[in-house]
Amino acid sequence: MEATRGELAAIRALKRVEGKWPDTIWLYCTGNGMHVFRCGENGEHVMDRSGTPDTDYELDYITGIDHDGGDF
Predict the structure, then answer these.
(1) Which domain does 26 fall in, by range?
(2) Is residue 56 assigned to a domain?
(3) Under DSSP, is residue 38 helix (H, G, I), strand (E, B) or coil?
(4) Distance CA 12, CA 6 (A)
(5) Does any domain span residue 2?
(6) CA atoms in the 13 A half-sphere facing the CB of 6
(7) How many helices (H) and strands (E) are present in the chain, helices listed first?
(8) How do residues 39-58 score in pLDDT, each as one tens digit?
(9) Which residue of 11, 17, 35, 46 has the smallest Cβ count within 10 Å?
């Protein structure tokens, strides 16, 4: 399948972000958004007792980008 010009531009922009993404933050995708979390002191994804990301480490919440948090 071939991407449109707009799609190619969006993919290039995402790849530029990838190259600048700091090791200190990570994304957690849920229902209709992406949560931006800071990593723990040793670079780990800090979880709470239930095994979900610890919201004390949440920095931001991004909506408007369609995504699926599942694995292939």
Answers:
(1) 22-72
(2) yes
(3) strand
(4) 10
(5) no
(6) 0
(7) 1, 3
(8) 999 999 999 999 999 999 99
(9) 17
- pTM value is 0.84
Give the 3-state secondary structure of residue 47.
Answer: strand
pLDDT value, residue 32: 80
Q: How far apart are CA 24 and CA 47, in angstroms?
A: 15
The C-alpha torsion from 68 through 62 and 58 to 45, rounded to 10°, is 30
pLDDT digits (tens, 9 = 90+) for 27-43: 999 878 899 999 999 99
The count of domains in the chain is 1
Which pLDDT does position 70 carry in this prediction? 66
Distance linking the first and last C-alpha atoms of the chain: 18
Distance CA 61, CA 9 (A): 23
